[in-house]
Amino acid sequence: MSAIVEIRDLERLARRRVPKMFFEYANSGSWTESTFRANIEDFAPIRLRQRVAVDMTNRSLETTMVGQKVAMPVVLAPIGMCGMQRADGEILAAKAAADFGVPFTLSTMSICSIEDVAAATKKPFWFQLYVMRDREFAGDLIDRAKAAGCSALVLTLDLQILGQRHNDLRNGLSAPPRFTPKHIWQVATRPGWCMRMAGTRQRTFGNIVGHAKGVDDLSSLTSWTAEQFDPKLNWKDIEWIKKRWGGPLILKGILDVEDARTAVKTGADAIIVSNHGGRQLDGAPSAISVLPEIVEAVGDKIEVHMDGGIRSGQDVLKALCLGARGVMIGRAYVFGLGAMGQAGVRMSLDIIAKELDMTMALCGERKVTDLSRMNLYHSGQQ
Questions:
Q1: Active-site residues: which are they?
Q2: Could you say which of 24, 121, 234, 347 would form a disulfide bridge with 167 (CB–CB 3.0 to 4.6 Å)?
Q3: Beta 326-329 vs 303-307: how paired, if at all?
């Protein structure tokens, strides 16, 4: 195996070790994937301001996000079916995040349940909530997250209906995989993945099966998920969620200034500028391209985080310079998980931290909290 020095190395390794349907589930977007690509590509034109002959010693990446101390301003994003990238994937990722000192966010659509992750880890994690038509079940999810000691609730607002993801439809995505010749071939060519999956009990949606009414097996689960995402979700619903939760609340999926201003009025603690990784509205702008205008509109009233397209520590730094308090990474850590399990997630965090620290130093800064637009290059800058 060649040396792993950047996130793309982990991506290539994960592609070889994870069955095609699950790798493409994580590493693709909706429709033409124009927004998925823009999330990555729109970082490139942002230029950095190099400074020299400045003291670069005693640097620190430490800061806080929603009042919680973090080793660097990075959170592991909620990823559906993370436990299909690697057996017990959510548990492994949560352990790596806790060991590094950054939050892990568990998805409603995870394979390992809230209780599974809580039992296997020692530090609090964040929980991401999808609001379902069955509000009793949604309320139960909130209560379970509270009982597990989750330290923040991330409410996703941009999945009222599911965007069309061509690869998932072509691949016949399901968890666990169906017994068709195509699916059998995909998993059979990944023997390490198969062996690890054989050794775990977690192979379907742990937060749903056995908890939602009438969902006791895979067949009922398929129809339930198709029916349960709530297209009627609106701003008024946030009030009862906030009251029932009672802790730090983060709203994910903000991509418009008007929506950002409305989000502030809900009393949430933070917003995440995000287009769901380019997996919902194809043709929407990249998250990094709209971040500055949202920060300008509400950054003095609410904590602004950003999610989408981050593949390096330099990307993290650019988002921070444009006003983000912190960022979420999804695919960057999922590649590590699929490639090498818990050690791979830790490696992805180490890579990003090293790149962020080195870039920050070359920009003449010693504290990540001091980064600003002054660290970006503008022609004619004095």
A1: 276
A2: 24
A3: parallel
